[in-house]
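Re-run with default settings, no changes from the original entry. Doing this only to confirm the output is reproducible before filing.
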Amino acid sequence: MAKLSEGDLLKLVAVTHAGVSTDEFAAVVKTWIAKAKHPRWKRPYTELTYAPMQEAMRYLRANGYKTYIVSGGTQPFMRVFTEEVYGIPPDQVIGTALATQFTPSNTLMLAPKLLLDNNNGGKAEDIYLFVGRRPQAAFGNTSGDAEMLTYSQGGAGATLQMLVLHDDAEREYAYGPAQGLPDTKIGAFTQALYDEATKNGWTVISMKKDWKRIFAFE
């Protein structure tokens, strides 16, 4: 999905710091996601998922695989919409997690305390924590995904590791600094990650060259 603005994310994080329940937070996210539109495409964020990745997930599920979202984003936020948008239920979403506290009124309160940082090595650690096994395939698009792909490649039998290189500024974004692409705050795909992919035999997908379309509405 195309990235949310930093301001919008900060507003959502501020809500969690107010000590709301998980149900209250989900309601806030549901309301926001139904109304918010990306400033560039003027479309709901839920329409800005990558069509080729959606196709890949549907293909894997049709052939007996279970698909997960493993993201640096927060679990309470993503779990609100992943089933409707990606076909991935909440229990198959692994993300950065805030602490919760059970109350006598039978609610779970979100606390302003980081429980899991689902980036870099944390992705491999949390996959084991939630799933208990190495994935047979892993897909990423930033330097924070390297450890997850390495963990996947260490499994038995045939495995698949793929990285999406954002190199299409016209249809989406272009950022690196790998391969001389702009070094921006949108994302981080370093030359070191590109070199690691080449060394380990990971497939690097060029948005510009390999994807006939990026979004379903194209």
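The longest strand covers residues 93-102. The mean pLDDT is 91.
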